[in-house]
Amino acid sequence: MGRGFVPEDLEATSWDSLEPLINDLLERELSCSSCLEGLIADSSELAEHVSEAGALLYIGMTCDTESEEKKGAFLDFVSNVRPKLSEHSDAINRRLVEHPAVEDLPERYDLMLKGIRTDVEIFRKENIPLGVRQTELVTESQAINGAMTVEFDGEERTFSQMSGYLEANDRSLREAAWTAMASRRMEDHERMSEIFDELVSIRHEMAQNAGFDSYTEFMFKAMHRFDYTVDDCLEFHESVESVCMPILAQINRERSELLGVGELRPWDVNEKGGSGPDVHGRDPLRPFETVDEMVAKLSELFHEISKDLGGMFDKLVEMDTLDLETRKGKAPGGYQYYLEKSRVPFIFMNAAGLQGDLETMIHEAGHAFHSLYCGHLELIDERDYPIEFAEVASMSMELLTQPWWDKFYDSEEADRARRTHLEGVVFLLPWIATIDSFQHWVYANPGHSREERAEVWLSIRDRFGSAMDWTGHGDFREVSWQQQGHLYGAPFYYIEYGIAQLGSLQLWKTQMADPQKALDDYANAMSLGNTRSLPELFSAADLKLGFDEGHFQSLMDTVESSLSELPA
Q: How far apart are CA 545 and CA 534, in angstroms?
């Protein structure tokens, strides 16, 4: 794909290999706009090699958090190569935006230059070692989580494996499973708090170094949030409170009534996703037994939806870039990581045979489709789509595949799965508001004490959480925010899921009226990558970018109406 500036066999994890190429970019003569275009193209090609090398190290580490060798290789790259790259990238960026011929560049580069100018504005050399320390702390937090297992039911089990017990009909079994997991988390809560304290301190220092009063302002710039503000986020929280919370409360009232439990306890409903035991005492949904079975059925499903998606999914399988099964020592969660040089998406998850695992796989496949749709774009920056839209690709795929879930179930179970998923949307939006609201407070008050943090966290939980009895587990509830890895590894990344959920619900509404239009709108918008602003990407998929109560209400009305049509 490249222009030949970078040797194909470049060892991109070695500074000695990278330095001559970077010096070329820093020292070459630039006399005209076409020279600048050459600089952009060559920088992009080098960035592809470096990005992929870093991605492979990260993947290796998360697939095996117990390997000191893999962790060491990743941290060596982060400590010794990335800091130098960061400094030199800034110098290359300055060469570009300060060059008189930059005004003559074609319109194609406008969005990219806007981002680069912002990066130049906030770059500070003294933040490089702080960034390295930040990555070390995040890596430690991931290793702590990756090592969490419990002895349960006669075996050592990962948290992903334990989640199956939280759907059991036997309430005492659920309680035992939940309590075992909470107790295990409490063993590390002190170190997890220490890590977070240090991260908050580092991040505040980085913001001040760059001339900002708060890390919030710094991150809105760093994340290129050009199209919405802190006030928009606060409006999102208010809309969630007024529109989603009454629906969530009603679902929980029905749940406690049907379960016959009086007050709900933490093991009766997952606050983040709304999952739990079946209210009619039916066996938990188990869409597949093995990862191979899930992959084979998803291939059928995507082929039935469209030739396009079916072909893309098969490509993922053929390229052998999937690590899907849960095991000890594997980092928690799921992600898609695009290998920029090879133009290949890698998918990581922890499948244990649950409905939530099926949704995760479909979600990550949506990210992979997005990467493949815009893989034709020449420059790495043009493919680096905004996170808010990346999540539209994945979350809408969850909704758009719903009519085909009978591949995994009989018709009654498929309806149950659809209901569970739509109820999950109702629960997820308040959880997004919870995490986002918490981050806004944390970074607006960087000198806070742990006691203050716990108090604020509990007040936010009261605003956006399920009403339930926490007797005997108050200490865990105070630090339950530690379960959300984004707070450690991806600060301020969470509202994106909310913005995207609103986009995906609109695509789903389009599908109800015109399934082909929904697929066309999806493909059209995803193929644009990062060549349009966020509002323009939403428009390309015929979606509205909004945070107001009326917008929320129209979408949640559709969710409620669909829930009313599904058997309980």
A: 8
Beta strands in 32-165 (DSSP E): 149-152, 155-158
Q: Is the pTM here over 0.85, yes or no?
A: yes
Percentage of the chain exceeding pLDDT 90 = 88
Report phi then psi at 7, rounded to 5: -60, 140
Q: Are strands 322-325 and 155-158 parallel, antiparallel or unpaired?
A: unpaired
Query: Percent of the chain scored above 70 by pLDDT?
Result: 99
| Gap between the Cα atoms of 393 and 390, Å rounded | 5
CB atoms within 10 A of CB 168: 19
Distance from C-alpha of 75 to C-alpha of 93, rounded to nearest angstrom = 25
- Residue 387: strand pairing partners: none
The closest alpha carbon to 224, from 493, 503, 445, belongs to 493
3-state DSSP assignment of residue 449: coil
* Per-residue b or e along 111-131, where b marks 16 or more CB atoms closer than 10 Å to that residue's CB: bbbeebebbbebbeeebbebb
**Whole-number Å distance between alpha carbons of 199 and 185:** 19
Give dist(CA 321, CA 216) in Å, integer: 36
In one-letter notation, the amino acid at residue 102 is V
Over 60: is that where the pLDDT of 2 sits? Answer: no
Distance of CA 146 to CAs 61, 65, 68, Å? 11, 6, 13
Residue with tokens 């996170």: 387
Helices 110-122/215-222 angle, 10° precision: 150
User: What's the CA gap between 449 and 456, in Å, rounded?
Assistant: 11
Please report where in the chains the tokens 């890596």 appear, as a residue: 139
Give how far the C-alpha of residue 439 lies from the chain's centroid of Cα atoms, to the nearest Å.
16
Residue 518 has pLDDT above 50, yes or no: yes
Measured at the alpha carbon of residue 248, what is the angle toward residues 245 and 251, in degrees to the nearest 5?
155
H-state helical runs in 82-126: 82-97, 110-122
Mean pLDDT of 312-316: 94
Pair 534, 543: CB distance under 8 Å: no
Mean pLDDT of 199-213: 98
Please give the sequence-ordered ranges of beta strands (E in DSSP) within 442-533, or none if there are none: none
Residues 289-317, mean pLDDT to the nearest whole number: 96
Tokens representing 220 are: 């809105």
Quickly tell me which residue has 């079916």 as its tokens.
Answer: 310
